[in-house]
Amino acid sequence: MHAHPFSVFKRAGRPFYVVSFKDEATGRYLPAVSTKKTTEAEAIKTAYEWLRDGIPHKGGRVGVDIKSAFATAMISKPDTLFICDELQKRGLLVSFVLAGSKKSVKFVDYLGEFWDYENSEYVKDKLRKKHSIHKRYVRGQAADAAKYWSPYFGDKYLGEITWDDIDSFINYLDELPLSAKRKNKIITVGSVPLKWAFNRKKIDTNVVDGHTKFSGDSAERQILTPDLAAAIFRVEWDDERSRVANLLAMVTGMRACEIQGLRVQDLGKECVYVKHAWNFADGLKCTKNTEQRTVEVPFPYIVQNLLNIAKSNPHGASIDSYVFWAEKMSTKPMEGDLFLRGLRDALVKIGMTESAAKDYTFHGWRHYYTSYMMDKVNEKLLQKQTGHKTLEMLQHYGGHLISGDREQVRNAQVAAFGGLLPEFVNSNGYIGKGV
Q1: Tens of pLDDT along 355-367?
Q2: Torsion angle, CA of 2/8/12/16, rounded to 10 degrees?
Q3: Which CATH number fits domain 226-420: 3.20.20.70, 2.60.120.1440, 3.90.190.20, 1.10.443.10?
């Protein structure tokens, strides 16, 4: 009988013949593979074809010698890494993940841990280096990771993510009815963790480098005209706290969270000391850029209103109590949404439709202030008042005001906003002379 370099046989109860090739080097037979043939002759013919062309495997063919080598060799983890690296260099592997490696964590699990404020190494590193990163921001990132990134990437491992995967995800976002700014924020939710992973050698490639983000005009922020600004402060407001908060924002450009964070001890004679910001996730925290600043308020009317509100605190006033107190709790300030609600209610009272009023935001005061102060003081002074830190040179010059700067800012504020302040005594008995 002719000896074949393989063994063909049928297992009990199975319809097809299988073939087991012989490793000539060791004399051992390799694991059997089904030929899908029901006769021995057909199975032998198929086996010889495989010996010549390779054994079918996942859409391709594997040579018998290669299969023999892998079936009989003792392959260590370094061997596996070398083989995969070599295949990747030759363009035969796009990416690979070795069991037990840093790459072998599920990508969605990695994102979840990265945007976990209490456990994230990224957050800990930021805080250790005195960078400002608040719980509210981290929780928002985690929510977007769960909503957009996790469903898209599913069970993929961190080490499997490729440049093309990120490009595909960006194309997926392109189909969603979101603004360009919103889409770019969603991209950041995943790109920051992936870049972090690359920099710390958790992955081999910076898969987020070189992608083109979305562009497009953001919805134009509406800011009031001086006439409208003057008009809304000449009608009665349902909540005096909201009215004064809007007044303060108009003449200082302060953020809502900074106004919420004002305590009695932060009120100066003709200024306020911006030391903190408030949000419900973090409570009272440092300001957005982590620096304190003195904001000029050269309007006795507004300063007196701030003091009167602080004194009317139903929980009792102390140097630590919030100026804009909350009705139900002494441990937190009033909700920032009430600032906005009061603004829109006042706009409706002067004749604006509710729909048109919704185009205006409390944050718009920051743009209003900047717009009307821009041509009156130099950029350095203006940014010291607003707390913006976008230019590197301005950070270099920070620290103190030179002689005359304070007067320049105050004169500009009086010129820009003094004529807009109401001149009446309202039903609550607040002083009504603007300056």
Answers
A1: 999 989 998 888 8
A2: -130
A3: 1.10.443.10
